[in-house]
Design a protein that fits this description.
150 residues; elongated; 7 helices
Length: 150
């Protein structure tokens, strides 16, 4: 039977605990970030704070790692007789884009998310779709931590 090396065994165990903790913390961050963006992007008609007229603002939501995201700033105008969300903006699903970005993310990355519509900052100023979602960060972190502990 080999000699027991308390320091070596203890350090190995601690390294495993620390790695596992960091991995879980990173998972909580990613899930909470996604929750915030989903809340911020929820239209008023679905109980959120983002106004959706043509759908352009919502469709410009995008993210990037280690750089600010870029996108179109002006949508097209409605044609005579057009009402509601315009067809080219109606099928936008930011969830796939966001999940793909989060899968690529490493712990040392900085993640950015924003809306490139030229009026996004004014809508945020008046409607607060992002700031109100960010104010729920603590509850998202708590919920995701609790979920991960199970």
């Amino acid at each position: 039977m080999g000699k027991f090396d308390f320091n070596k065994d203890f350090n190995v165990k601690m390294d495993k605990i620390i790695a596992n903790t960091k991995e879980k913390m990173f998972a909580v961050f990613k899930d909470s970030f996604q929750d915030v963006i989903e809340e911020a992007s929820t239209p008023v008609a679905s109980g959120g704070k983002m106004r959706v007229d043509t759908g352009f603002l919502r469709s410009t939501g995008s993210g990037a790692l280690n750089a600010l995201p870029r996108g179109e700033s002006e949508g097209r105008k409605r044609l005579p007789g057009e009402i509601g969300v315009l067809p080219e903006y109606s099928n936008y699903d930011f969830t796939n884009s966001l999940q793909s970005l989060l899968l690529q993310m490493k712990p040392d990355n900085t993640i950015y998310w924003g809306w490139s519509a030229n009026y996004a900052k004014y809508r945020e100023l008046y409607d607060g779709f992002l700031i109100s979602a960010c104010q729920n960060w603590k509850s998202y972190v708590e919920n995701n931590t609790r979920r991960l502990k199970k």
